[in-house]
Amino acid sequence: MNGEVEPRILTSLRSKYRQAITEAFEATKKATGSSSSGSFDSFSSTASYEASGAKARAKQRALGNLDFASKNAMTLSEACQILNVKPLQDGKTDMEIVMNRFKRLYDVNDPEAGGSFYLQSKVLRARERIEAEVRKKEEEEEREEELQGGWRPRLFNR
């Protein structure tokens, strides 16, 4: 589960919370003599919209249809701009330059030194995005090399 709550459990919890809020709202409405239910209607529609979105995302995740950018919300070009590095050429870049820029920007934006936590986290996400892209390309090259050269199991000495 990786720390995620299953969608059916979330739906069950949401319906219980929705019922409790409905009862509290109705009790408040009776006590105040108000006949307006507009705010609850908007809450109810928002909750059902969120529940349907969670179900759709869970289904897409199970099918493996979410691409990397939609999961992490940072494009490769945005990551390169944040770290001020050249865009990857055929999935490769000088990781030493990326790490040097990352370390400098991460330290400059340290909240304890008067920096911004938001910017620091963006710098971290940018580095992670570039590393993931490079790793993905390396795995593809290894797979291609294995297909061309034949499978050779890695043996470990005991």
What this model shows, in words?
There is one protein chain. The chain has 158 residues and is mainly α. The chain has helices spanning 7-32, 38-63, 68-72, 76-83, 95-108, 117-149. Helix 1 packs antiparallel against helix 2 (38-63). The protein is flat. The mean pLDDT is 76.
Short characterization:
Helices cover 71% and strands 0% of the residues.
Key terms:
flat; mainly alpha; 158 residues
Cα gyration radius (Å): 24 Å
What best-fitting shape do the alpha-carbon axes yield? flat
E-strand count: 0
Secondary structure tally, helices: 6
Decide which structural class fits the backbone. Answer: mainly alpha
Question: Could you give the order of the helices and strands?
Answer: HHHHHH
Question: How are the secondary structure elements laid out?
Answer:
Blueprint: H1 7-32, H2 38-63, H3 68-72, H4 76-83, H5 95-108, H6 117-149
Helix pairs in contact: 1-2, 4-6, 5-6
